Recover the amino acids of this structure.
């Protein structure tokens, strides 16, 4: 007798991958992976959500990193305040990096597990952006 699987495998997305794999890859490569999977996947809402969240997550991390480096450069030339600012940045930058890493790992695990999970603050923004883009793509029913 043939063994029956416990559950049917998820249908492949527009990328040819299972939704949880496509979402997981979007989460593994923030910003770039998000853009790739957002462009390639046109139908699967789960993959599109994780792709949009990845775009926001990677973009925010990049922006914060650049901002902290600019602040360090600008304040590095000031005698007293510059030393104090550099000391504060030496504390803030690793904390930001650790927090980003933890959220990144949680996101990867959740996406590959096929679970919906909103990154705090960014998940809501990603959903709102998806409603705008996906809502505009489909004409209203007559």
């Amino acid at each position: 007798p043939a063994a029956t699987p416990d559950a049917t495998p998820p249908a492949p997305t527009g990328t040819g991958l299972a939704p949880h794999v496509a979402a997981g890859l979007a989460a593994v490569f923030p910003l770039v992976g998000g853009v790739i999977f957002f462009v390639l996947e046109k139908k699967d809402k789960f993959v599109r959500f994780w792709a949009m969240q990845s775009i926001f997550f990677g973009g925010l991390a990049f922006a914060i990193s650049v901002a902290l480096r600019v602040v360090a450069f600008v304040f590095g030339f000031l005698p007293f305040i510059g030393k104090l600012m550099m000391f504060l940045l030496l504390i803030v930058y690793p904390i930001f990096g650790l927090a980003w890493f933890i959220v990144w790992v949680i996101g990867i695990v959740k996406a590959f597990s096929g679970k919906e999970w909103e990154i705090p603050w960014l998940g809501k923004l990603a959903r709102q952006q998806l409603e705008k883009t996906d809502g505009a793509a489909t004409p209203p029913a007559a």
